[in-house]
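I'd like us to work through together how a protein chain folds, taking it slowly. To get us started, please write out a protein record for me. Label the sequence line and the structure token line clearly, so we can match residues to local backbone shapes. Once you have written the record down, we can walk along the chain together.
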Amino acid sequence: MQNKSLAQRRPHVLIVDDVPSNVQVLAEALKQDYEVYFATSGEQAIEMAISQRIDLMLLDIMMPEVDGFEVCRLMQMDEMLREIPVIFVTAKIEMEDEAKGFEVGGVDYITKPVRPMIVRARVRTHLELKASRDKLRAMTSLDGLTGLPNQTWFDGILAREIERLRLECKPLSLMLIGVDYFEQFNRTQGHLAGDRALCRIGTALLEQSGQSMNVVARYEGDQFALLCPDTDAEQANAVARDLLMCVIELGIPRASGSVAHLTASIGGVTLEAEPGIGRFATQKMAKDEARSQLLKAKQNGHNQFWIERISVGA
């Protein structure tokens, strides 16, 4: 998920079919170039599209309980899932069915028996089109000063990861990083120096953020945000400690005060899903708790981190 790693990983393709032999044929055609995942029902397909960060879906139309058309329609109702190209796979296609497939959000059809060369060509084409759309979307999702993702984009990723937390019961850590005494720095050093400092700090946080799935963004004013999937409280503490040190090591001088260089404070929350708990995670809960912990870090002397662990329902 981290903006610096998406281009490095192989695209994730999800094959949805309740007949194992059909899955095997498609998987053999694609496994050399893509990370291939399988689902045998519509419900499982939607869950995997979220949890595995799927880039493209090959979806059989005729399935028990929920057919392919309904799966695609449900995906269009979700802000993140609607961006996944859906190619329908079917034994035969009537004109009415073809029209219905495009109406519910499908981008293409492949007919059975499938030909590997055709499958690879269609998948490659639609992944390239998606990459172009994603690039255009990213241009409006970047902070103009630092070049990092902006708050709107980050909040969308946070929403998706909170849903994945509920499905997979893996911990999720959110941190807000605030530059200490930044208003004073701007007054004494000037706004141009302040902008340069934010750019340097943003770059340092990105480089120090840890595993490739972590996401760094410019959030509000002198604040940055870091989202760490699959990261428990102990791991989050270690990441926060490293982030504080990387800001200090930049050596950005302050004109006044007892501290010679700019520092940062961090407030965060680690959400851990457990069955049977009635309180469920929300974006607002996570952000409010991170802001509360950031305030504590600043009130207790700056250049420190406070991270709260919260158990939520699965």
Remarks:
- Strands lie at 12-16, 35-39, 56-60, 86-90, 108-111, 172-179, 215-218, 223-229, 264-274, 305-313.
